[in-house]
User: Fold Sulfite dehydrogenase from Thermus parvatiensis.
Amino acid sequence: MDPRVPPGQFVTERFPILTYGETPRIAKEAWRLEVTGLVETPLVLTYEDLLARPQVELTRDFHCVTRWSRLDVTWKGVRTRDLLEEARPRPEAVAALVESYGGYTTNLLLEDLLREDVLLAHTLFGKPLPPERGGPVRFLVPHLYAWKSAKWVRRIVLLDHLELGFWERLGYHWRGDPWKEERFQEGPVPAHRIRFAARNKPER
Assistant:
């Protein structure tokens, strides 16, 4: 077994497209990203604003909760943590709700958003991200199952608690670590623990 492949996954050379509902079609000129909620400096970015920031190209494996993995996928975009440094999260911020065009949502911990390989990706294998893959801009969160890599991202709302997104409300795991096979939620969601962590977070 390839040590890069999480338990319960199989490797494919295909790159399936799985989407709930219709595919939104957002022109690059119309696309906007908001970073809001518990931040000192809310941001509203255009596509050109995103391209004007430092760009990162990286190759990561992509793991779907439906048990397939595609290895060595190359993306280009902007590190989410760079945008969060601009927005300056408030001390009580511990999680985020990510919202997409079309109404999709997913939740992430702030610590996950701050990892160096979490991107707002606009390029896939050297080409602009097509709409069916989440273009013009999607999240890439390679250390979690792919439903956390929200397509057509439009808003990041920082919160002092865990607010479940679309699939999480339907029973998917609140975090989704493929190495722990966190596919479905078993037991209570630790919202109270996260709120407690926010209240006791040390001052910057």
